[in-house]
Design brief:
The structure is a homotetramer of 388-residue chains. Chain A has 388 residues and is of the alpha/beta class. Helices cover 32% and strands 22% of the residues of chain A. The first copy, chain A, is globular, with a radius of gyration of 21 Å. The two termini of chain A are 28 Å apart. Chain A binds chain D through residues 6, 9-10, 12-13, 16-17, 20-21, 47-49, 158, 160, 267-270, 286-290, 310, 312, 323-333, and chain D through 6, 9-10, 12-13, 16-17, 20-21, 47-49, 158, 160, 267-270, 286-290, 310, 312, 323-333. Strand 15 (306-310) of chain A pairs antiparallel with strand 15 (306-310) of chain C, so a sheet runs across the interface. Chains A, B, C, D: This is Gfo/Idh/MocA family oxidoreductase.
């Protein structure tokens, strides 16, 4: 694994736990973790349960005891590490967003396709597809429970940037993060929409905004930035969006509405999805991730209504291995499920989903959003994916 | 009152009840109701409590015992009746949307301004401003409880057009209704957003769609249409939008997101509003109209969260006259409150709100939405209101 | 109508509105209202829409233009007025609880039975049976949608007595109110439980408590009390319960749990009902009175869950006459429905429900609760109703 | 660890994870797991991550590499194992309910007290105290945020016994389980009530019921029962309660209401708690375990209401070590927290809570419930705990 901060801790929990809960065809071993600060990475290895620590990702990739490289770094290093790992014959799991640009994502996807011919697999870490309620929603859409879709509505609302004195971390700088709420939150929203609907977005019209344009600089040590100075180092420019709103169309005719922001006061992790179809509707809120709401429009109106499915039954996705009904799961279970599914894909040599091509498609939507926002919100087509 | 269908019944309830619950400076008398079908309008007068019936709105306006004309007809007749009534020296209450075009709304607003100089008042019937929870939300915004606004999010979702066999009523034909979900539902959404924020929208970017383009014709009798034929009369074109999605900006910098649709399966009357500001957030859903959600971001995070204010306390707007705490109000109470406030305005010769100018401003937003939708979603400015 | 305070205002709204919304076989006329204070009752008559005012209920009953007497006074005068009105050949609607003792209720029920033989009807004002969601719940129980019942859970929580400085009103004194939370709130809870289940409670085990045993005296004028003195008149004993908790059994085997209190801080009018049966469950909360929750246990578990039925569809009880789906009703609509149903019963000479016998049965349960509470909570049988 | 079924898997997850997430003063090592079936226990050891397997709990206790014995067996073996382990100088964690009788629990508590003098600690596994929202609720009660308590309401509703063809497992037989819903669910309810209030229950009045008195026998192999026969082996008696309802009093005057059942159709794990005090109220539902509802009654009524605290902030109990705000936890996190706190107690030689004395106190309440139910619901005092 490369990187050991928030995402690294979550991925570690996934790798450590998957084989303790699910029957896996292969047993994950936490061989080595990599980070630039030798002391810190050794402490992280001990804490998180990795057998060894490396300070150069190239050395990690070169290790014989590493079959899979899990990339948990900021987006600006994804492409280089992923391509090198694939070329070195490793399987790759790469955190989302896949890259900071369409070009990088295209390169990565091409590398993934070549690697696939050699039996190496590549997966993008859109972990929310593996919330059981989301997996159930996808299954219900595929089964026709909602019918022809008319509306898709996804908002991803957080509030940790409301305070103007929050400092200028890497997530607020374009060279590191690529974009702001758009890539951090909007990428999840777009991936979920396309996953649930089962087709790519055809085009978008977008508005973006940076509400707070200057923020206090962090001191250099704590952030991996080249930024000068100590705590009172002054202010720097925020170079990414604080919020992105966009509407769009799916080829099959459904309308879509998206909003990604880190300024929605009181909303902590409100990734909300609603699908309205001719036969029914589905609704989900990540702040209540064990619940899926379903309205069955084929029922008599006198007793119809949105029902709250507590997605904790043994017949629900991933639930066969967990606790009795009503004993809910949490956020990090998505990483356990991701680890489980990738291990199965490797053992069975099936294509993992979301693929790098799926990650690229999200990147194309994000690029279209930025292009539309730059061009006075004009409707901007998203290039269709090339069939594999 | 002109018109006695759904809106006429609701307005009648308002006029009959206001003086029985509130202390009013003047006593409303239900003098006469008007409709084209003499037998039907007499039956409606008896049912709804009007002393007389008329079949020509010009005769209604000419009556000496009429001081106020309440217009509850489809939008295509609003301008002609309202202008004539104002010129005849009557006060006017006109249902929303104020008109079917900006031009009509401008004419009406000009007539209202001239009438105001003579002491006649004109009010637009955006009744949802008078849901107590909405009135409370506006008060809290004005008091600074949410601070500088960053986000405004309004969706108005219904589902009564999902079935493609629903017939081609007047609401689905542009000559009568002006527009579809946009004017019917979007007008409320836009008015509430501008009311709550306290300023007009500066511009919008929009998508609209007509999902079901042909619908069965009604037979002529029941709809006021010239449409030919009996029940199996064939199909006609739907000439209005089924759904409208738009984003926008307020001059002060807040971003706004809107959605109006009659295809959101399972959503019956889901007018949902959320405001996010630097100091707090407010949220409302018309399907639970006695509740307002408030997050106070100035509180310590350890015990902060969205609170559900049950807007039934005596210190809440309009509640001083109703029932004890927790004994909720319903939809038609908004018309009682509208009647009350208009009677006060008349007695006290104050300007009623929403004025015709407010109705015109909503119309300008709707026109900008249609223009943007016609021009590939390009961001389209909304002309600023001319100061009175 | 006798009495014109909170209940009188609500009943007046019901009588005024029923015929304006529903097609009634007879037209209610608000002939006269009665109260002891001549000036106040004349003002109330004008406000509430009654044609005349009386200061002696015997005079009211003697009027030829009165066919129905609606009793909205405190419980201690119900029996005398109701019996006299029935004997005078009037129909009677009597507010709940029917009386302050089983003995009074028995006398009233006997009078009602004799009157029925002469064509005069008597109804008890348990208005919550006519919340559409409750009427729908009863219909669904009767249709077998929940199957054999196992659990009935009813809590009625308010909080207006939490503050120890709230004064000693008539509701806190046994001679006027009979009991405290038990008769005020528990009576509704018991009636709803018996109505929904469709059978009487067989026995109960109870705890009651008076948390605040002394409260400030009101001055004499405002309360109909003989209490001496002015505002600083000192303190008086609270002689009723502040809270009552009881469990019970239905003859068919279901267990029941009840709680009535005016000390549940933050709960304003939380009459909550839940029924669990072998085939399904129903849940209701009066603070969200347009909603009924239903879990259908005959569905596959993978997509089952409590659904929120928005009880605003035309096929729902009473809704054929009101607004489109999603346009909710309020508290006072129960009185409109009560008026409607009683007018129908009178016109069609059918027995109205809840009858005085139903009111008596509730009284027997309340008496059993008080007896159990006085006897160390021992399980106490409720006498079975005598078949009519 | 003794036992490796549902509870064993959950405890294993706790022991494996605690040191990977929290900074612990000692590092847990999963030395050995014990079960009667050698093959099955070895498989469980491999799956769950235990270094060794034993088939005799006495051998487990005798191991030098075991410092702590975690007892996850049915209640009938708790006393024997726990006392032996303590006498062998091991720390003990024992699942709830502590025992199947007050006598056993007294013996265990005495053993725990003697062991404490030697530095061995004993803890009862009421894991729900360590749901962050419950820990926060306790902190808020202790800080006086709800003031003098008036009402405590706890229901624990499940539905897995609704189907009469569900077989006669050990949980339905008194010799193994001690009691039914009472000991399984009611024990949690009682412990939480006493924990949150901070004092023991003074007395109770109870009803219990067994709705389905005969159930199909399991075949012998799968259940540890002596029951004969194969799948069609016939029926056996259910010898425990299906549901228990009880009311009670705390010494300080608050009233309490409890319900435990496995027949509440549609309720999967609905452990619901509400506390009403003079200054505020708290509410919790285990089906939404990341949320705590709080009503602050000291606020102005105009903007007061139950707020939803998303208990995922770094300043919330246990959250300093987990994910960012809004990224919820699940059921098994309670076992991670339990492991963490017990490790701290061992390292710091502090008394762990809940102690065996706390488990004994719960047992006394359960015994009083059964006594009251057997004596016609008469109010039955709970013996006060002997001060340590």
């Amino acid at each position: 694994m490369v990187g050991y901060a928030f995402m690294g801790a979550a991925h570690s929990q996934g790798w450590r736990t998957a084989g303790r809960v699910f029957d896996l065809p292969l047993t994950p071993r936490l061989a080595a973790v990599c980070g630039r600060d030798g002391q810190a990475v050794r402490a992280a290895a001990d804490r998180l349960g990795w057998a060894a620590a490396e300070t150069d990702w190239r050395a990690l990739i070169a290790r014989d005891d590493v079959d899979l490289v899990d990339i948990c770094t900021p987006g600006d290093s994804h492409a280089e590490i992923a391509v090198a790992a694939l070329e070195a014959g490793k399987h790759v799991l790469c955190e989302k967003p896949l890259a900071n640009s369409v070009e990088e994502a295209e390169t990565m996807t091409a590398a993934a396709e070549q690697a696939a011919a050699r039996g190496q697999l590549a997966m993008t870490g859109f972990n929310y597809r593996r919330v059981p309620a989301i997996a159930l929603a996808r299954r219900m859409v595929a089964e026709g429970r909602v019918g022809t879709l008319r509306h898709v509505r996804v908002t991803y609302l957080q509030d940790w940037l409301v305070d103007p004195s929050f400092p200028l971390t890497w997530r607020l700088q374009k060279p590191y993060a690529g974009s702001g709420a758009l890539g951090d939150l909007g990428a999840h929203a777009v991936d979920l929409a396309q996953f649930l609907v089962g087709e790519p977005l055809a085009g978008v019209s977008a508005l973006t905004e940076t509400f707070v344009r200057e923020r206090p600089l962090l001191d250099g040590a704590s952030s991996g930035l080249s930024a000068a100075g100590g705590g009172e180092a002054g202010f720097g420019q925020v170079t990414v969006d604080d919020a992105a709103l966009f509407t769009g169309r799916f080829a099959s005719g459904a309308l879509a509405s998206f909003e990604a922001t880190r300024f929605a006061t009181g909303r902590k992790n409100a990734l909300r999805v609603e699908l309205n179809g001719e036969r029914g509707s589905l609704a989900f809120d990540l702040e209540r991730l064990n619940e899926l709401y379903f309205h069955d429009h084929t029922e008599p109106g006198v007793s119809a209504g949105f029902r709250r499915i507590l997605v904790t039954e043994p017949q629900h996705p991933y639930l066969e291995a967990w606790w009795p009904p009503g004993h809910g799961l949490g956020y990090e279970h998505t990483f356990v499920h991701q680890a489980r599914d990738l291990v199965h894909a490797i053992a069975e040599q099936t294509a993992p989903a979301p693929s790098f091509a799926d990650g690229l498609q999200v990147q194309r939507v994000l690029a279209a959003v930025e292009e539309s926002a730059a061009k006075n919100s004009v409707y901007t087509a998203v290039p269709a994916p090339v069939p594999a």
